Amino acid sequence: MKLLQPCRWNAWIVSLILVVILVSGGCTSPPEPPPPPPEPDNSAPVITSITVLLPHAPLITIGEKEEPIKISRWNTAEIECIAEDSDDDELTFNWSATGGKITQRRNIIGWTAPAVADNYTVTVNISDGMGGETEASMVFNALCCGH
């Protein structure tokens, strides 16, 4: 029986170790991808003005007049809400009222007072579609017979 020479024996072991390292290195999983960057903070829309135009009356700016806005039954007020979004997100205006009829055209609506004399609240909710919202309300007093 012929014994391997020490130099050849060492070369054979080193070759075997290299083969094992190379083969096992090819079986590792690729590194995990980095996490996505965090979403930027979103700012809520800001209402810059709300104006009300009544038949035969001067323009009313909400905020300057706190008591209910007087309107005759069946008359229509034109209400305009101007809002801004610092993130330049597209704004959606959702109007509602506790009575009467709303004719909506985005940020401008017509609100027709109902036949029953009473106080009615008209509310606008503005959303930027990214979680930011703001809301404002105004109270109208529908009057009977022009009082």
Polypeptide structure, described:
- The protein is mainly beta and 147 residues long.
- The chain has a domain at 46-143: Immunoglobulins (Immunoglobulin-like, Sandwich).
- It contains 1 helix and 9 strands.
- It has one helix spanning 6-25; strands at 46-53, 60-61, 69-72, 76-84, 92-97, 101-105, 108-112, 118-127, 133-143.
- Strands 2-1-4-7-6 form a 5-stranded antiparallel beta sheet, with no helix packed on it.
- The model has no long low-confidence stretch (mean pLDDT 85).
Write a short abstract of this structure.
The protein has 147 residues and is mainly beta.
Key descriptive features of the protein:
147 residues; mainly beta; Immunoglobulin-like; 5-stranded antiparallel β-sheet; 4-stranded mixed β-sheet
What is the strand and helix layout of this fold?
Elements: H1 6-25, E1 46-53, E2 60-61, E3 69-72, E4 76-84, E5 92-97, E6 101-105, E7 108-112, E8 118-127, E9 133-143
Parallel strand pairs: 3-9
Antiparallel strand pairs: 1-2, 1-4, 4-7, 5-8, 6-7, 8-9
Describe the biggest sheet? 5 strands, antiparallel
Uncertain spans: none
Helix content: 10-25%
Number of strands: 9
> Class by helix and strand content?
mainly beta
CATH superfamily annotation of the domain at 46-143: Immunoglobulins
Alpha-carbon distance between the two ends: 126 Å
Q: Looking at CATH, which topology of the domain at 46-143 would you report?
A: Immunoglobulin-like
User: What is the radius of gyration computed over CA atoms, rounded to a whole number of angstroms?
Assistant: 36 Å
What's the SSE pattern?
HEEEEEEEEE
Count of helical stretches: 1
Mean pLDDT, to the nearest integer, reads 85
Q: Name the CATH architecture of the domain at 46-143.
A: Sandwich
Shape: rod-shaped
Strand arrangement, major sheet: 2-1-4-7-6
CATH class of the domain at 46-143, please? Mainly Beta
Approximate strand percentage: 35-45%
